[in-house]
């Protein structure tokens, strides 16, 4: 299932009047994070090149750069921009899939949907078509189409980009549930598929066909650790999430961490090997009804810190998505789905100190 649908379904549980949202002001400080900059529309991936922070903003289809205390718009009118990375001097953006009308069996027009684009002088050009690759190869082997040729899920939903330590770029495809490799000529090949998530609430979960039991491992974040391995965050719906450690050369699975909660949408690794993962929807009200009276949506979301011995501690950050370890500290996007609550320009770029992480009982 494509990531935006999952987020939309879960975020609908939070629908409150805009006045009910208390969005911290720019440069404000809480007990668990500091706001560096605000005014973003649905920030997703966060990446760095030098001292510049790049943020993909999904709600307005832009790529923004934060440098010297100022936002600069580098790309606009892309559609659902979800990933961004500077790769060998090329600014790449992952554009998510357009959502079909649920009342229609037809897929929406493609346009830039489900592509990777590169910024050019005065414009952009499509450099990869992951959906074409998925249709041709179907790496996870799941049934793609149901009766009448209707897609059972998103065929492709490009979500996260990073430079490839052994090539050009890697792409997390949250629709195809795989990680793709782009070479310097932008040819697409398979880097890795991920195992189905079968822990916790995902145990025995039905999928597209009887051969695949468990939650789809929807890849939402990529980063390299100090050990040179590739770490991948994956959500399994609004339930169990996982972090996978892969061999950065071959894509072979090396280790798995489970026990994460709702909406795992980003991963970072500190210089000591500590893992950080963002739970976008932790604490969201359950069920289809309205939230409880007096519910505060700023309590939704947290970042999980996983120590070397597996101990988990938590920092309260509202609706975090993209994560990055940069310049000795953890960075995150925040209020990443506030737009689904009817609140504009609420997205933020924040830093989170290690002292913010506490045990649940604290």
TrEMBL record:
The keyword Isomerase does not apply. It comes from the Bacteria. InterPro entries: ScyD/ScyE-like, WD40/YVTN_repeat-like_dom_sf. Residues 1-27 form the signal peptide. Keywords: Signal. NCBIfam families: ScyE_fam (NF033206). This is ScyD/ScyE family protein. It comes from Motilibacter rhizosphaerae.
